[in-house]
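REVIEWER CHECKLIST
Item 1: Sequence provided? yes
Item 2: Single chain? yes
Item 3: Sequence as submitted:
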Amino acid sequence: MAGDNITLETRGLTIRFGGHTAVDKVSCAFSRGVLTAIVGPNGAGKTTYFNLISGQLKASEGTVILNGRDITGLPASQRTALGLGRAFQLTNLFPSLSVFENVRLVVQAREKKGFDVFSLARSHSELADEANAILKRVHLAELADYQVSGLSHGDQRKLEVALMLAMKPAVFMFDEPTAGMSMDEAPVILDLIAEIKEQEHATILLVEHKMDVIRTLADRIIVLHNGALAADGEPAEVMKSAVVQEAYLGREIADV
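Item 4: Structure as written out by the authors:
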């Protein structure tokens, strides 16, 4: 996974809460065009690792490198501006506005054309066209005029993907994207992630518990246990490890 295509890298990334080490010297490089699934038991440090990468938490030690730049000391907002996109922490960004306005404002902010909620769409026709194209892509075009606060849980998650697409990040981060979704809604999100992988040639990180999802989407699996990196490799290699099956992933993976 190494080479010139590396977009994101963590080096010795660590965080301690009192006497507890939640993430312990994790070093990983993530490449363009590769979807990496991050798995492990509850409390393994998966979401904490995500929070360190995206800037929600400050590392005790180690560094985060994005496109060759050390971003360890930057806040989450600056990391986003530099191309680090994290979905499913964007819910209710503008809850009182319409679905369309949410996406248009993100496109507008990305293009640095000002923050003007009440500007006419025709004055930014190219932004409106892009916003509409993104909504169509995530199957929300028919809900463009709906207020975000009234959306179903599944449609809010689709909107979160739309907002991340509008950012055009170099790295897409998904933390349990199908959690809380119905059997009918989940495939739409998974299809969107697969489409992003194919069309955007982006670096994708996915925290997920469902082994069928991982088997379908992942090019690579890394396993965290007690905050440390326990395994890293191609899905077939990691999944067949007896140690990983028993200690980290449980019997579900054997059933798959």
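Item 5: Key structural point noted by reviewer: The chain has a mean pLDDT of 85.
Item 6: Recommendation: ____
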